Amino acid sequence: MKNYYHVEKIFEALESAIAISTKKKFEYETDIRVSINPKTGEFDTFRRWLVVDEVKVPTKEITLEAAQFDDPNLQLGEYVEDQIESIAFDRIAMQTARQVISTKIREAERAKVVEQFREEEGKIVTGTVKKVSRDSIILDLGNKAEAMIAREDMLPRENFRPGDRVRGYFIK
């Protein structure tokens, strides 16, 4: 089965990866936002400062008075952004981007599985025993999903071995 993801999630992962790679190019902690044009693939990079009452991290925050000097409509909690030059990807930046993208895709897969099984709550599900321990058994439900049945939720003297098929009421 092929994995399909929403295009927005993929672009979010790419933007996050480029932002993290860009942050690593700065000597000090900064807040970076990347915006990718989905039609052309071109991206813009912005350095951001959070508008606050009192600055605690000067490389990431700006006072309301200073922010309103350029834009009188800015409020607390909003961001001041300056477009900066996008980085040229070297080997390390590419490796960082690849790791971030992989992480974001795994998170999307996990969220998809959780959402799928939220719909199964209160229904009978079938799984294969993957692991047996003193306190519980772990079931493989398919689609990269696992379930745990605690020993106290089983019938007394009920024994399972890896590979056994089990049907149960899905709680949470």
TrEMBL record:
The keyword Nucleotide-binding does not apply. GO terms for biological process: DNA-templated transcription termination; transcription antitermination. Residues 122-172 form the S1 motif domain. InterPro entries: NA-bd_OB-fold, NusA_N_sf, S1_domain, TF_NusA_bacterial, TF_NusA_N. GO terms for molecular function: DNA-binding transcription factor activity; RNA binding; translation elongation factor activity. Keywords: Elongation factor, Protein biosynthesis, RNA-binding. One of its GO terms (cellular component) is cytosol. The keyword RNA-binding applies. PANTHER family: TRANSCRIPTION TERMINATION FACTOR NUSA, TRANSCRIPTION TERMINATION_ANTITERMINATION PROTEIN NUSA. This is Transcription elongation factor NusA.
